[in-house]
């Protein structure tokens, strides 16, 4: 029986180098395999796509989803007002730590926009972050929130967007820093951060609170700006809605949990009135990127604004995330 | 130097500091915005049905907005970009013409309301929406949200 010390004294042979090289090669192959597996796009299941296609879609209902989802805020041309907000020609430049995202044209133009997309392609973009060619979309498009949307709402929104005008505007590609320019890496981001779990657990939620949770965590995608992110661009789950540095420059995005310095003294009806009118309880007004979001919120049914307010009063309080 | 002289000097010194401080443009413009907010609130309470329509109060509010806007753009001299919790965005100095035009446009809207004041609540509602759109359209570009 050889002792461990006896083994350690065994002279190194040429064979050891081969083993090391072989081991490295194997590790590389395994690593590449894991990378490929982890970063692979996972489309929406056939069953779910069938359910979405079977839904009785209604464009009028889809319009309220369009405003709740804030589509025009990014996809309409900069400075668009009134009816022009329905022309989703893209072109807005979203700056981030990873580079600049140039918002695509999602109008009904078959060539420049997504006029050629069927409902399945649309559902894959909204719910799985996958483009019609099967590749990953960057999460600057907030499918990390839209993933929570219902089959019916996806079908309704698609129906409404088919009614919108076409724009033949062709936009520049994203200007991202290496390695974020490698699209396949988005699969790793999804592996780490993409799921449709509730952001918070609310005990004994009534219908209004559940509706508010759905709107804020799903189509409204409020947390995409109001929650701080980690270095890889994932939302810090434990600081849900705690506020964050302004991704587009100086300043901050406010903490909208009940612990936020601005909102802590607001009643639910103050929050609902702010979303409707843009006025804080002391008649300061909405500013920054929220101006456009508030215009969207003003288009919702009053009951939906009240549901959002109820949810914001019910979420766990956090200190500022900025 | 007597104690009295010291106290007198200290008092005058303090007064000078306070006067200089109060004259800082950051403070002046913040106070103006508070006035405009108060005037807006007075009208909003009528629009929301929390208070009865009162034409005299509407004219008073519009006058506050008009006179504040007349002076407002002048409160952003070079050198007042930072300090005193200012939420002024750098865009004010980058696009000064547009910034001034927005203030003047709000002033003109308020002046039009003073010249032809709403006779009843419906008239106020019709004026209030378009008038207060100016708040957001200016704050969208020219105000930063700061920690606080």
TrEMBL record, chain A:
Residue ranges annotated as transmembrane are 16-38
Which domain of life does the protein's organism represent? Bacteria
- Provide the alphabetized UniProt keywords: Heme, Iron, Membrane, Metal-binding, Transmembrane, Transmembrane helix
**What GO MF terms are annotated?**
electron transfer activity; heme binding; metal ion binding
Q: Does the keyword Plastid apply?
A: no
Q: Which stretches make up the Cytochrome c domain? A: 57-165, 207-316
List the Pfam families hit by this protein, alphabetically: Cytochrom_C (PF00034)
Instruction: Write the protein's name.
Output: C-type cytochrome
Origin organism is Pseudohoeflea suaedae
**Mind giving the lineage of the organism this protein is from?**
Bacteria, Pseudomonadati, Pseudomonadota, Alphaproteobacteria, Hyphomicrobiales
TrEMBL record, chain B:
Would the keyword Transport turn up in this protein's UniProt record?
A: yes
- Quote the SUPFAM superfamilies the UniProt record gives: Cytochromes
Q: Which domain of life is it from?
A: Bacteria
- Where, by residue number, does the polypeptide cross the bilayer? none
Q: Can you say what this protein is called? A: Cytochrome C556
Q: Which organism is it from?
A: Pseudohoeflea suaedae
**Which GO cellular component terms are attached?**
periplasmic space
Q: Which UniProt keywords apply?
A: Electron transport, Heme, Iron, Metal-binding, Signal, Transport
Q: What GO molecular functions are on record for this protein?
A: electron transfer activity; heme binding; iron ion binding
One of this protein's GO BP terms? electron transport chain
Q: How is it modified after translation?
A: Binds 1 heme group per subunit.
Signal peptide range equals 1-22
- InterPro entries per record: Cyt_c/b562, Cyt_c_II, Cyt_c_prime
Residues given in the record as heme c binding sites: 135, 138-139
């Amino acid at each position: 029986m050889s002792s461990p010390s006896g083994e350690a004294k065994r002279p190194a042979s040429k064979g050891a180098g081969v083993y090391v090289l072989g081991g490295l090669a194997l590790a590389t192959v395994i690593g590449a395999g894991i990378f490929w597996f982890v970063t692979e796009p996972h489309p929406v299941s056939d069953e779910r796509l069938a359910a979405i296609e079977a839904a009785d879609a209604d464009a009028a209902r889809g319009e309220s989803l369009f405003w709740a989802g804030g589509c025009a805020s990014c996809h309409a041309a900069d400075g668009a007002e009134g009816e022009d907000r329905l022309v989703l020609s893209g072109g807005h430049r979203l700056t981030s730590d990873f580079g600049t995202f140039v918002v695509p044209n999602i109008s009904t133009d078959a060539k420049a926009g997504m006029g050629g997309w069927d409902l399945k392609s649309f559902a894959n973009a909204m719910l799985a972050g996958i483009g019609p060619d099967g590749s990953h979309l960057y999460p600057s498009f907030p499918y990390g929130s839209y993933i929570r949307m219902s089959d019916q709402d996806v079908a309704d929104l698609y129906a409404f967007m088919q009614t919108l005008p076409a724009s033949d505007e062709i936009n520049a590609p994203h200007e991202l820093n290496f390695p974020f320019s490698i699209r396949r890496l988005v699969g790793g981001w999804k592996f780490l951060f993409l799921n449709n779990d509730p952001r918070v657990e609310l005990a004994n939620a009534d219908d209004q609170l559940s509706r508010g949770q759905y709107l804020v965590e799903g189509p409204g995608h409020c947390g995409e700006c109001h929650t701080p992110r980690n270095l890889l661009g994932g939302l810090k789950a434990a600081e849900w809605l705690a506020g964050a540095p302004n991704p587009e420059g100086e300043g901050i995005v406010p903490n909208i949990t009940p612990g936020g310095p601005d909102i802590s003294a607001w009643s639910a009806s103050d929050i609902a009135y702010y979303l409707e009118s843009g006025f804080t309880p002391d008649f300061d007004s909405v500013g920054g990127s929220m101006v456009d979001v508030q215009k969207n919120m003003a288009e919702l049914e009053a009951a939906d604004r009240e549901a959002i307010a109820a949810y914001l009063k019910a979420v766990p309080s956090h200190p500022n995330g900025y | 130097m007597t104690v009295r002289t010291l106290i007198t000097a200290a008092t005058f010194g303090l007064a000078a500091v306070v006067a200089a401080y109060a004259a800082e443009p950051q403070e002046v413009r913040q106070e103006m915005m508070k006035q405009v907010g108060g005037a807006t609130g007075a009208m909003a309470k009528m629009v929301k049905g929390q208070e009865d329509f009162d034409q005299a109060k509407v004219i008073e509010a519009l006058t506050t907005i008009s006179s504040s806007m007349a002076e407002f753009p002048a409160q952003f001299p070079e050198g007042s970009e930072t300090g005193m919790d200012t939420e002024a965005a750098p865009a004010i100095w980058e696009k000064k013409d547009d910034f001034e035009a927005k203030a003047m446009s709000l002033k003109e809207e308020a002046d039009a309301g003073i010249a032809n004041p709403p006779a009843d609540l419906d008239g106020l509602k019709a004026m209030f929406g378009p008038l207060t759109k100016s708040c957001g359209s200016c704050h969208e570009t020219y105000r930063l949200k700061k920690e606080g």
